[in-house]
Amino acid sequence: MTMNGDTATAERSFGEGTDRIVQIVEKQDIFREVDDLKRQLAIQAATQAGALATQSAVQAGALATEAAAQAGVSATLAATQAGAAATLAAMQAGTVATTAALQAGQAAATTAALMGVWSTLIGSGVALVAGVFVGSYFLQKK
Length: 142
Prior knowledge:
single chain
């Protein structure tokens, strides 16, 4: 009788012919292998899900930043136009209105930019935390 470990079979010769007999493996070994494969696949799936969630959050943050920047540009343009009108009025009435309009434009642009950065940080942080918790869960389950 000879053992062939590559194909998990045993060969036994009887005269001219050869019979192939499948090697007997305990059920516990098979179930243990299946459980290990399941864990590995679950960890891989959780890791990929975390990566996708992080990527989605980064993209959402980038879109939010872009939208906030666009809003900032619009607000700046509107404030600039208001400032120009106020400047014309200030030329007749004084320089106080010009200063107020310019400060309002700067405040609007600064607020819009800060909101974009803040939303990017929040989105990325949430995705990172979610990815870590999902990955940790499956690693502890192993």
